[in-house]
């Protein structure tokens, strides 16, 4: 399955970044408020372990860890924080490999519980790609390390576009139709949505993906918008559970 190969490649890119970190860098602040680089990778390891559990039929009770998704994730990290970069790297590596294995073996049509929703394995894999990419930025940028955009952004933009109805529903409203025209890092543009959509978003794929991941303010991007609801779409669009 293409998305699983893309997820593996994204994780490999992150692994190469992490393998070169010093202990000082592991302890440095990430872009996630209150989390060190080691905390971010601990969080990724915990989530990959949760993927394994949910595919095997024993999903994590995130609600029991906090009143919101963010609170639950913070509680999980706080409970197991060690500060050791080597330890969290050694925990994440086998977890991400095992998660890929169970995702490849999963029934592609069977929805599984994930955080606030149920997802098919391919969509769950896409969320994992999006989260690994976003957290890689949280690690690389404050350390001044490169983390180049790739063609895998196509999967992240698909997720952001496909989940707009969910994001609007969570806010108690209905999503407009949206067309996205994203300039790929290399190659032709990617187009999502109908020609006659209510809202048009266009610009660099990296900017669009970063806005959806809440890693870039739309006002600081090269994204162009049109349509009465366009500004609201940029507020609602997400690549993660809310």
TrEMBL record:
Origin superkingdom: Bacteria
Which residue ranges does the record assign to the Mycothiol-dependent maleylpyruvate isomerase metal-binding domain? 7-140
The family database entries (SUPFAM superfamilies) matched by this protein are listed as: DinB/YfiT-like putative metalloenzymes
One Pfam family of this chain = MDMPI_N
InterPro entries, per database record: DinB/YfiT-like (IPR034660), Maleyloyr_isom (IPR017517), MDMPI_metal-binding (IPR024344)
GO terms, molecular function: metal ion binding
Put simply, this protein is called Mycothiol-dependent maleylpyruvate isomerase metal-binding domain-containing protein
Q: Which organism is it from?
A: Nostocoides australiense Ben110
């Amino acid at each position: 399955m293409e998305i699983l190969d893309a997820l593996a490649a994204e994780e490999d890119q992150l692994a190469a970044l992490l393998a070169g970190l010093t202990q000082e860098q592991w302890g440095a602040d990430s872009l996630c408020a209150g989390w060190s680089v080691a905390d971010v990778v601990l969080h990724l390891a915990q989530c990959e372990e949760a993927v394994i559990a949910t595919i095997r039929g024993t999903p994590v009770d995130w609600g029991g860890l906090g009143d919101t998704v963010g609170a639950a994730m913070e509680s999980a990290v706080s409970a197991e924080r060690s500060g050791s970069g080597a330890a969290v790297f050694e925990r994440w590596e086998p977890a991400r490999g095992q998660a890929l294995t169970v995702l490849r073996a999963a029934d592609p049509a069977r929805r599984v519980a994930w955080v606030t929703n149920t997802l098919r394995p391919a969509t769950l894999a896409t969320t994992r790609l999006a989260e690994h990419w976003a957290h890689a930025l949280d690690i690389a940028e404050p350390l001044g390390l490169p983390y180049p955009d790739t063609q895998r952004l196509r999967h992240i933009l698909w997720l952001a576009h496909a989940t707009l109805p969910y994001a609007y529903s969570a806010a108690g409203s209905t999503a407009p139709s949206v067309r996205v025209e994203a300039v790929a890092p290399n190659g032709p543009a990617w187009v999502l949505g109908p020609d006659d959509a209510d809202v048009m978003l266009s610009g660099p794929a990296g900017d669009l993906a970063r806005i959806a991941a809440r890693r870039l303010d739309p006002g600081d991007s090269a994204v162009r918008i049109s349509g009465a609801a366009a500004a609201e779409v940029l507020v609602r669009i997400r690549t993660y559970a809310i």
